[in-house]
Write a structure and sequence with these properties.
By secondary structure, the protein is an alpha/beta fold. The protein has a single domain, classed as Alpha-Beta Barrel (TIM Barrel), CATH 3.20.20. Helices cover about 35% and strands about 20% of the residues. Helix 1 links the parallel strand 1 (about 5-10) and strand 2 (about 35-45). Helix 4 packs parallel to helix 6.
Length: about 270
């Protein structure tokens, strides 16, 4: 790693349905890369908690507790809560009795729709994508109002698929007021904004969110930011983190946050 304080605080092991490698293998990879800190954040899609995720959450917690990092690696236990606003009872149950260091709040699908990954955007009627995004911003506001998370994951997640995979242009200027509402609510709530570097290795080719939105967040007074690769295998762990740190510098940031016991530790972008 090029930066002394490089951290990867969003990634998934085989405890997630779409993860490929064990928690132990992911941790060993973090050590080999020389990361300053590593936080494992396996999935919990809250609207599917009882049918698919309760056992996975329990297993992930147990496996993280059995890890013994070496070579000075700081290891922290985390979780990514998907759609906690859609089933707050399930989200609360996922957190109950587990002293996570870091909790990511994400929206992967809006109500009554599949994950943005699965949606078919080809030949969509005029206004369809605009309406999807409008609903997405609103659900982010709901999640922020719920508030039992530390960082908002991949703000521009839908664009990973709409623009990146399907090549459909989206004019975010039409959504700027809604995005500003999300960023302002995030700042007022004391929550962090994640810089998700997965887009750098995918077709969209930029961080989620990208430099202009990170600058806007900074201009609005946002200072809490976290970094995560969103890796689902050892090969992708920490990819783009160095570039993400440089992107934060370009946006005006001097520090980023590493969460320990649900509290941000501010580290320099060095």
């Amino acid at each position: 790693m090029q930066h002394a304080f490089a951290c990867d605080c969003h990634n998934h092991s085989a405890c997630s349905p779409d993860g490929h490698d064990s928690a132990a293998a992911m941790c060993a990879r973090a050590q080999a890369l020389g990361l300053y800190a590593y936080t494992l954040t396996d999935h919990c899609e809250c609207q599917k908690f009882e049918e698919r995720y309760r056992a996975r959450v329990e297993t992930a917690w147990e496996q993280m507790g059995s890890l013994t990092p070496q070579n000075g690696l700081r290891f922290y236990r985390g979780i990514e809560l998907g759609q906690p606003n859609q089933d707050t009872a399930a989200a609360d149950a996922a957190l109950q009795g587990r002293a996570y260091d870091f909790v990511i709040g994400s929206i992967h699908n809006i109500r009554d729709f599949e994950d943005f990954f699965f949606l078919d955007y080809t030949g969509a009627p005029e206004g369809y994508i605009h309406s999807l995004l409008t609903a997405y911003w609103q659900e982010l506001l709901e999640m922020i109002a719920w508030g039992r998370f530390d960082a908002l994951g991949h703000l521009t997640y839908p664009l990973r698929y709409i623009q990146g995979e399907h090549g459909i242009p989206v004019d975010l200027q039409k959504h700027q007021d809604a995005i500003d509402q999300v960023l302002t609510a995030l700042i007022k709530s004391g929550k962090a904004l994640e810089v998700n570097t997965s887009g750098l290795r995918q077709k969209i080719g930029r961080t989620l969110p990208d430099l202009p939105l990170l600058k806007r967040y900074h201009d609005l007074g946002g200072r809490l930011v976290t970094l995560g690769s969103d890796a689902h295998c050892t090969a992708d762990l920490a990819k783009g983190i160095d570039q993400g740190m440089e992107t934060l510098k370009a946006a005006g940031f001097t520090h980023f946050a590493l969460y320990v016991q649900r509290r941000p530790q501010m580290l320099p972008l060095e």
